[in-house]
Write a structure and sequence with these properties.
9 helices; homodimer; DNA-binding
DNA sequence: GTCTATATTTGGATAGAC
DNA sequence: GTCTATCCAAATATAGAC
């Protein structure tokens, strides 16, 4: 414990994220955050002088970076179908196959700072735009593409909620298998 | 302010529910609950001697009663299609057309008492069972019926999350219009 | 950079007057 | 049944030693 960081910044961010994700903004107490990171509360304040709101902001920035990586295959993959399949795999991994909640849901309950909820909304829109773009590339018309992207996000978020409430990750896994068809299929998909 | 209740029990329950719904269990402070109900904290303790967990239990009991009413048309209506349509209308009303969150989602984050999360899981299963039954009556085979009920709950919950995060209730309204087809349609619906 | 110690505020809960 | 006043614990945040 000298003057050099005992815990890597990315690790701190990831462990903070776990706490905010599981308990929401209000449920993430400094004690819980401190315990999860393995640093005393005062040490957290050294890294985040603006306190809990700053920690939440850092978490969302980390989530944003992770989301970019998750969505990258949607435009980087020459084969759209493979891109969507890869996104689905990354989503499955990121949400631990449905065993953890989504920060976009849990961190945006009443009580969270406004900039947090605003950032979450931006992330959701990025996600929608990336999926709509993939659907477009797969041959859907623009209106269809937007509708399918919206339906996809609705199902992902809903599956996470239902899986968590029922303690049944299979709901999430099942839903993910249907994602590619939803975004890509030619036939009219609800 | 004599010895007679200044606020009706059902009203208290409903106002407590608003706070738990919006902020989750952890976010529902006694001060917020007190302010919402219009009674001092001590008065809340008179009605709920076991404190905040008891208030949360009362809220879930109220939600359970409301859910029964919401689902009643599914088996009470002779015409299944009309029953599903009526359920959809009641859901729309209960969630204020997508402007409020679902207690099953927000009250079940880490930090809530175990009996609360267990109760929420039971309510979700009741909901699924009622929709699966309607789908069965509409001609689906048992496996289809369960899958469709699950898909319906996933979409409802997901639409509430996405609507809230985007501040766009139209996502919820759009999703609700698709519910009847999902539960009733003969053709293979994802 | 991390720690112990402490300050301050809020949250949960109780006592007792009316 | 509701209130004011109070208690205690927990949550947020800061000071200063190492």
């Amino acid at each position: 414990m000298g003057r050099t960081a005992s815990v890597d910044e990315a690790v701190v961010q990831a462990r903070l994220a776990e706490v905010f994700r599981a308990g929401g903004y209000a449920g993430a107490s400094l004690s819980a955050l401190s315990a999860a990171v393995g640093l005393q509360r005062a040490s957290l304040y050294h890294r985040f002088p603006d306190g809990k709101p700053a920690m939440a902001r850092a978490v969302l920035q980390g989530i944003e970076a992770e989301l970019q990586e998750t969505l990258r295959p949607l435009h980087a993959e020459p084969d759209v179908a493979e891109g969507v399949a890869e996104m689905a795999r990354r989503i499955a991994r990121g949400y631990q196959d449905g065993r953890v909640a989504c920060v976009l849901d849990t961190m945006t309950l009443t009580g969270a700072p406004d900039d947090i909820t605003a950032h979450a909304a931006r992330l959701a829109r990025q996600w929608l735009a990336a999926m709509a773009d993939a659907s477009l590339r797969a041959g859907a018309d623009p209106q269809q593409a937007n509708a399918r992207a919206q339906a996809a996000l609705v199902r992902i978020q809903g599956a996470l909620v239902v899986s968590r409430v029922l303690h049944d990750p299979s709901v999430f896994e099942q839903t993910l298998t249907e994602l590619p068809a939803l975004l890509l299929s030619d036939r009219r998909a609800l």
